[in-house]
Amino acid sequence: MASHRRPKQPSRARVTVLTATAAAAVALTSQAAHADPKPTKSEVKSKVDKLYDEAEQATEKLNGATEKQKKLEKEVDAIQDKVARGQDELNEQRQSLGAVAAAQYRSGGIDPSVQLFLSADPDSFLQQAGALDQLSAQQTQQLKQIQAKQRKLAQERKEAADKLADLADTRKELGKKKGEVKAKLAEAQRILNSMTAAEKAAMQAEQDRANRASARTALTSAPGTTANPGKGSGMSGAAFSAAQTQLGKPYVFGATGPSSYDCSGLTSWAYRQAGVSLPRTSQAQANAGTRIYSQSQLQVGDLVLFYGDLHHIGLYAGNGQVLHAPRTGTVVRYESIGNMPFQFGVRV
Questions:
Q1: CA distances to 58, 72, 92, 191, 250 from 51, in Å
Q2: What is the Cα–Cα distance from 244 to 179, expressed in whole angstroms?
Q3: pLDDT, the chain, mean
Q4: How far apart, in whole angstroms, are the C-alpha atoms of residue 172 and residue 62?
Q5: Most buried of 29, 67, 71, 222 (most Cβ within 10 A)?
Q6: pLDDT digits over 134-148, tens only?
Q7: φ and ψ at residue 330, rounded to 5 degrees
Q8: Is 275 left (phi over 0), alpha (psi -120 to 50) or beta?
Q9: Which residues are tagged catalytic?
Q10: Cis omega (within 30 of 0) on the bond before 39?
Q11: Considering only CA atoms, which of 197, 209, 189, 179 is closest in space to residue 328?
């Protein structure tokens, strides 16, 4: 006789485990289906270029803070030297008066007028002396000189203290900007490291082709060629020729040559070879001459400023090209002026 017993039902615990396992499987499948696809070569390049651009913005601010620090250090040293000399002069004046006092003491007492000279508070004693008519014209003049020296020293000490406080703030800002630059560069490198060797090679090959094309275009109008549409003046032409000798040198943030450069480091170095001293940062160099807002009016060797905050600068190479130090990971090279947001040129 066949058995008609009901099949055994699964336990509640077993149902719970199976349900949880199925839910997990569905979740993993869903995540896999919606996982972010690997970025394309173009997207990687865009992210890296953006990080390098931000690093260069921070680099120019770093350059500005570095220059400010150097200037403040010189000013502080000069003020402190002045204070030290002034204190020595004051001490000498007091010592000469002390000798007079000693002589008077040996002869039977110190004249009240000499006590005024030796006072730590000449102002109050001068008022008293005026009331008592105790000082000769010469003595009054000597005491006023001491007063003036003390006041000047007090002002110089305050000025030195203010400069030292400003210097401390600048050094703090300098450290912050260095950290910002390094962080941007590290993030860019992390993204590049996620690429395969083949992808990196393809990206570099593409960049090399663009560099060669820009170089060919620029050289058709470089100084000394018949195709040059607007040869620079003797000074700007000399600066441009100097910059050409640095082609292939690596970009390094904060560098001013001759083995490596950042953007404003290259332009300031090039013009220095032509006998012209430019400010250190691109923003300051933007005020080094006459501004030219039409690209068609640019001449070889003119400074060329890019981006709204003027954080990048190069030298006009003619025929729509610029010679510059682009960013970390690149070298001094030619590039189309249209690859960056042009703001204006500067004729030094």
A1: 11, 31, 61, 10, 18
A2: 32
A3: 78
A4: 11
A5: 222
A6: 445 655 666 677 777
A7: -120, 180
A8: left
A9: 263, 312, 324
A10: no
A11: 189
